[in-house]
Automatic annotation (TrEMBL):
Keywords (A to Z) from UniProt: ATP-binding, Nucleotide-binding, Transport
SMART domains: AAA
SUPFAM superfamilies, alphabetized: P-loop containing nucleoside triphosphate hydrolases
UniProt-listed PROSITE patterns: ABC_TRANSPORTER_1, ABC_TRANSPORTER_2
Protein name: ABC transporter ATP-binding protein
Residue ranges occupied by any ABC transporter domain in the UniProt entry: 11-242
UniProt cross-references to Pfam families, sorted A to Z: ABC_tran (PF00005)
Amino acid sequence: MKQISSTPAKIELGHVTHLYLSTTRAFMAVQDINLRVEEGEFICLVGPSGCGKTTLLSLIAGLEKPTAGKVWIDGRKVNGTSRQVGYMLQQDYLFNWRSIEDNVFLGLDIQGIRTKETEEYALHLLDEMELSDVRKFSPLQLSGGMRQRVALVRTLACQPDVLLLDEPFSALDYQTKLKLEDLIFSTLRRHKKTAVLVTHDLSESIAMGDRVYIFSRNPGRINSEIVVPSPIREALPFDARNHDGFQDLFHRVWKEMEVVSDAAKGN
Ligand code: ADP
Ligand code: MG
């Protein structure tokens, strides 16, 4: 199968279908997904639970191989995991017996890229995230929001240019979540990262994304795409929520979600 466009996108999915196989059944998690994400774009995936959002991230990360179709990054077919792609999850997976600094360096160790330079870069990121003061602390001494910031630093320290974020804010209280949204949004923009965020918070998807994809389930497919207009797209997530037109967009996404949720109930 050939790529459709001549200029390679940062991420491209062409007719991606994925089945989970067990000895007794085959389950189609996602079907015929086509998606193009340009360098520096921030896109959001929303949809009912079980519609294949995490599966799609795993396919982009190279953790799963699509049953049919292809995934490309920079025009190269994804074939297993790569340093180029960072993955951040809802759970932070920090080791409580290691200091914050050592948790961050662990990412470098795993990738086999720990040098004086990469350590310095990681410490610079800790500073950017206002975590320098706690670098010798244990994760046990940190709040949920701080722990997620450490997890982000650990991911960014390996200098991936694609970031996959699977509901990274969902375990946090509302205020912390809003602050972290702004911080992650501005950090990723400053470092010119390409990002795919999965969230169940519709307002977060509009506040953070350049585009929002609404998935339907059984099998997981793209039901609709909503392009966020530029004034809202450029604003920090917190300010975006107060923008003219935000409520209209919210209602559009809400309506699309009602359609896919009703369809899911009918199954
Ligand atoms: P979401 O992240 O949107 O909630 P997932 O991608 O986790 O959805 O799952 C999509 C569907 O695939 C669900 O029905 C889920 O039960 C199924 N699924 C996910 N992972 C596996 C697996 N490893 N084996 C079998 N089925 C799976
Ligand atoms: Mg999921």
